[in-house]
Amino acid sequence: MLRVLAYITLFSLGGYVAVGLLEQKMIYPFDSTRVSPAKAGVPNLTEKTLEVDGAQLVTWVAAPRGGKPVILYFHGNAGNLANRAGRFRRFTERGYGLVAMAYRGSSGSTGTPSQKAITADVRTLYRHLDRVLKSDNPRVLYGESLGTGVVILGLLASAVTDAEKGAGPPAAVVLEAPYSSILDVALGMSPQLEPLSKFLTSTWESAANARYIKSPLLVIHGTEDAFIPIAQGRKVFAAAATNDKQFLAVKGGGHTDLWRSDVLPHLWRFIDRSSR
User: pTM of the predicted model, to two decimals?
Assistant: First the structure.
């Protein structure tokens, strides 16, 4: 958080010249270290690569057991895939399949991250999932923080989830700590960014596109999230078009501590019910 605030200050002092630096350092501060699933403690996962427009994208995958769904996991903007190993282990222990794609610049994936590039990458992944995992089992989209906007704009707001034009809609959607837009997050931390906001190219306007959420939806948000206030999560939830939706306000929860013993049973029930 201190690093984010430092970059915001730099942006405010440096003017629009620092816009590109702000976007890369604030929105996409990924850890580029490539760690194998085995070294991360999840040897049941396999690393595969997906090529999109010349970029080599690292994915960690596991096949589902029986009729269990495949979780398409889109991570937040901190760390790398290895930092989510514990989550991936929980998914596979329940028999869920998993496809976790590292964005450009994360976990050994090549290329430079941007909203345009990431959007193209996830749409290719969704349309051509069989390149990394051959499975006809139901798909569940899971977005974590930054990944919530990736799910909404990158996938649901495009024809890729249209049954006639793409690979078909997901069985369910889970959004953990969603934001109404990246600009709202930035202005909430530093209002003086307002005059320069028009220069941002990565805006990830989730609330404005939440009408494309038509599958069963679960939103998980901490009541004490100091980075993305819960009000932003509620705004995305309210705008979702689906009538089958649940909002789980995690009492006392912050931004990164939501996988608690009182939360996970709700998550498992939602996934199992929605993907039957």
Answer: 0.93
